[in-house]
Amino acid sequence: MADTRVPTVIADDVHVVYKVHGAGKGRGSATAALSRIFSRGKAEKGVREVHAVRGVSFTAHKGEAIGLIGSNGSGKSTLLKAVAGLQPVAAGKVYSHGQPSLLGVNAALMNDLTGERNVILGGLAMGMTKQQIRERYQEIVDFSGINEKGDFISLPMRTYSSGMGARLRFSIAAAKDHDVLMIDEALATGDAAFQRRSQKRIEELRATAGTVFLVSHSLSTVRETCDRAIWLERGELRMDGPVGEVCDAYEAFTNA
Ligand SMILES: Nc1ncnc2c1ncn2[C@@H]1O[C@H](COP(=O)(O)OP(=O)(O)OP(=O)(O)O)[C@@H](O)[C@H]1O
């Protein structure tokens, strides 16, 4: 039967290699570390390569929500950055429909500016017009819940707790309909009420727009939010399929 689904992202044998300049050579033993310290500045500096993503291929379709799971350092964030075009690939190709937007809890908002200003800047950075931002402003602030305990939106972001900052970032990014929306751990930081709101919003984004990718260590969030999961381990794709099957296999792997 012909596949009638519309592809939004195609990753074809993607490799990402980081080059770390000024890295010390040798193994992680105490003597190697000591000899590096004592010979500091002398011919010890080199370029070390970290092969973070190794030959990953998948096709994402319109209407899918895909969870990216795997141990620490398995390459999830790197893969998302490559799909978003923020990280060059060493080999392979990424094709995407529209501009994928990467929303991370580390998304660059300005700490010295007020929440209010960051909503406007963030909206402009995503390509919204001033008019669109004006129309959505109250919705974004209400969604974030920042003002539930006082007028925090008019205070600089540095006065926010890390959870509040993450919620505001999510709310700004979620205000726009995206062709491909990628979320890196954003949900894990909010409280229970915020997580429920975000799940609902992800559902809406899936319905109206294209594809949602979610990187998370919380398997329960991935199970509730996604219908498909991709499991990476040491930069390689271990499994790709229905969310239940992949999460079960990953759980069995981590418990073993
Ligand atoms: N800027 C960088 N320079 C060099 N190496 C990097 C850089 N960013 C990540 N790495 C390495 O690439 C590998 C994959 O990292 P990545 O952050 O993509 O993993 P992850 O699966 O998202 O991890 P986590 O679950 O801990 O967030 C790791 O070995 C990491 O040390």
Description:
The chain has nine helices and nine strands. The chain is α/β, with parallel strands linked by helices and 256 residues long. The chain has one domain (7-255): P-loop containing nucleotide triphosphate hydrolases (Rossmann fold, 3-Layer(aba) Sandwich). The strands form two sheets. The chain has a six-stranded mixed beta sheet, sandwiched between helices. The protein has a three-stranded antiparallel beta sheet with strand order 2-1-4. The chain is globular. The model has no long low-confidence stretch (mean pLDDT 85). Adenosine-5'-triphosphate (ATP) is lined by residues 18, 20, 50, 52, 70, 72-78. Adenosine-5'-triphosphate binds at residues 18, 20, 50, 52, 70, 72-78.
